[in-house]
Amino acid sequence: MFETKRLIIRRFTSNDAKDVYDCCNDFEVVKTTLGMPWPYTEDMAKGWIAKQPQREDLGVSYEFAICFKDNPNKIIGCVSLMDINANAKRAEMGYWVGRKYWKQGIATEAAKAMLKFGFENLGLHSIIARYFDINPASGRVMEKCGMTYVGNIREHEFRFDKYYNVGYYEMLETDEREQ
Predict the structure, then answer these.
(1) What's the mean pLDDT in 26-40?
(2) Are 107 and 95 in contact (CB under 8 A)?
(3) pTM of the entire structure?
(4) In this structure, what is the dihedral angle of CA atoms 14, 18, 23, 27, given to the nearest 10 degrees?
């Protein structure tokens, strides 16, 4: 668990499944993610949470719940490092926030904390993040975190019967970061 000015970022528990479902059973949230299934069910939330300890033990991903400090048992989003390559010391960062919590700086605050975790706790050299061009707010989060825009790949992802352009940002351990 770690904290930011407003947030607690902690491991998920089985008690969090209903909150995850409540946030993710919203097509507006799901359509801007690179892989969340739709429709999203509470059983999916339970299964995803149940598999997290194994993925963390294998060192392939770290997925953390985002909560406000004044309500640490209420999930408002998720921030993660995934597709971790231990040999190359790189990972991909991802995040989602429930729609009623959008436009409050939550994703930026959580992403900054996750970048710090990845570099300081996991010893990563490089962290990338990707976003669909239909979600420029996610690209702004990456930019506000101090990540460097490295390019756009046209029609790189196929989701919900459509191709999407994908923007890429990256941060290296040697890049200056806001503390």
Answers:
(1) 92
(2) yes
(3) 0.94
(4) 110
The 10s digit of each residue's pLDDT in 79-127 is 999 999 999 999 999 999 999 999 999 999 999 999 999 999 999 999 9
Residue 77 tokens, joined: 């989003």
> 25 pLDDT exceeds 90?
yes
Q: Are 103 and 122 in contact (CB under 8 A)?
A: no
Domain assignments of the chain as residue spans, ordered by start: 2-172
**Cβ atoms of 17 and 42 closer than 8 Å:** yes
Question: Residue 28 and residue 8: Cα distance in Å, rounded?
Answer: 24
The tokens of 49 are what?
Answer: 């949470």
Q: Residue 178 has what pLDDT?
A: 58
Query: In what side-by-side order are the strands of the sheet with 7-11?
Result: 2-3, 7-11, 62-68, 77-85, 90-97, 126-132, 162-172, 148-159
Which CATH superfamily does the domain covering 2-172 fall into? Answer: Gcn5-related N-acetyltransferase (GNAT) (3.40.630.30)
Helix (H, G, I), strand (E, B) or coil at 152: strand
